[in-house]
Amino acid sequence: MTRRGERGRSAEVDSSAPALRLDGLRKVFGERIAVTGLDLTIEPGSFFGLVGPNGAGKTTALSMAVGLLRPDAGTSHVFGADVWQQAGRARELLGVLPDGLAMPEHLTGRELLTYLGRLRRLDRTTAALRTDELLDVMDLMDAQRTPIVDYSTGMRKKIGLATALLHAPKLLVLDEPFEAVDPVSAAGLKHILRRFVAGGGSVLLSSHVMALVEELCDTVAVMAGGDVVAAGPLHLVKGHGTLEDAFVELVGGTRAEGEVLPWLVS
Ligand SMILES: Nc1ncnc2c1ncn2[C@@H]1O[C@H](COP(=O)(O)OP(=O)(O)OP(=O)(O)O)[C@@H](O)[C@H]1O
């Protein structure tokens, strides 16, 4: 049971359940099968990286996993809570950074965090404290009174991440969290995520940056054509080479070699 004053602080967790369990998730857009019937389990305490080429189905899968997109088939459970049947409970446990997050553009960064904190039932003092801390670690203090419509792409990503962290979730699902984030902010963000996992949290992130996934994640899954083609501990998936080598081999890509676009070379 969660007492009223503690809501938004930490929901109780079914410690025997996976942090995230996807069973048979499937989504079809018209003729295009975006996700074919995805099974994936994220263990508690893991730092999980989801990689795959453009159009592999990562965003579609993550959107269904967190309850933002209704699947045609399959289920998603967050610490045992079904994201559709027990949406309220799942939401307390989840922090989400979706792709292309829609923002209330005319709120300032500070207003957004304050209002979301209150919506998530943090008391006034806690909401204010966390807003200050998040603006500080995201290096957004100077922009705290700037409307979000005037934020850069990287600043939008960082305020989005701050909203994902605000209610102290147990599982973070982050779609391309480092995209457009400058190196200084990225270092701060990596530190936050590592501390989150060290403290018992779980992270699932997608990224196109293989070096970053290798640096942060202990477990990875490679998606291609709407399904997982390899998953497991990082060292097993990448083998003796780099994750990039394994990725290219797994998804059947060809690096541009030899004579390509000859008209570019005069
Ligand atoms: N709303 C939609 N309507 C129609 N097709 C869609 C929609 N969303 C995704 N798709 C299609 O589903 C497939 C998977 O797209 P998705 O965005 O999930 O891939 P992704 O792995 O996240 O790609 P990227 O790495 O480029 O972001 C693509 O072929 C895409 O065109």
Name the CATH superfamily classification.
Answer: P-loop containing nucleotide triphosphate hydrolases
Q: How does CATH name the architecture?
A: 3-Layer(aba) Sandwich
CATH class: Alpha Beta
Rg calc? 19 Å
* Coarse shape: globular
Ligand inventory reads:
adenosine-5'-triphosphate
Please characterize this protein's 3D structure.
This is ABC transporter ATP-binding protein. Residues 20-250 form the ABC transporter domain. Pfam families: ABC_tran. With 266 residues, this protein is of the alpha/beta class. It has one domain (4-254): Rossmann fold (3-Layer(aba) Sandwich), CATH 3.40.50. It is 34% helix and 23% strand. It is built from nine helices and ten strands. The protein has helices at residues 58-65, 87-93, 109-119, 124-137, 153-165, 183-198, 210-216, 234-238, 243-251, and strands at residues 20-29, 32-42, 47-51, 73-78, 81-82, 94-97, 171-175, 202-206, 219-224, 227-233. The strands form two sheets. The chain has a six-stranded mixed β-sheet with strand order 6-7-8-3-9-10, with helices on both faces. A hairpin with a 2-residue loop joins strand 9 and strand 10 (227-233). Helix 3 (109-119) crosses helix 4. The protein starts with 19 loop residues before the first strand and ends in a 15-residue tail after the last helix. Bound molecules: adenosine-5'-triphosphate (ATP).
Topology:
Layout: E1 20-29, E2 32-42, E3 47-51, H1 58-65, E4 73-78, E5 81-82, H2 87-93, E6 94-97, H3 109-119, H4 124-137, H5 153-165, E7 171-175, H6 183-198, E8 202-206, H7 210-216, E9 219-224, E10 227-233, H8 234-238, H9 243-251
Parallel strand pairs: 3-8, 3-9, 6-7, 7-8
Antiparallel strand pairs: 1-2, 1-4, 4-5, 9-10
Helix pairs in contact: 3-4
